[in-house]
Amino acid sequence: MLPPEPPPLPALTRAEGEVVDHYLRIVDLLGRINPARGTDTYGALRAAQALPAQAAGLLDALTAMHRRGETELYAAALARALRTLDGERRAARVTVPPETPT
User: Which of 36, 47, 70, 78 could cross-link 65 (Cys pair, CB 3.0–4.6 Å)?
Assistant: First the structure.
């Protein structure tokens, strides 16, 4: 039996889609850098090196929205897009894991 189809992404402008994409890439990189979850310095180093480019992409997307007069972020639609793209699981890697009893 095949897994169910994920829900469709909400209608987003091109810039909104880029905001979501770059945001999730940044979250993924921060998850790899997270010293409480990491396993090696090289992987964290590579993720840290990639972070500025993704931050610049996010800045460009938000700048494009602002210049076009898009003054509001539609949080409900953007949150739905993030959930559809597994954003909750991906963002969880950025947090400090719960302490395990010894």
Answer: 70
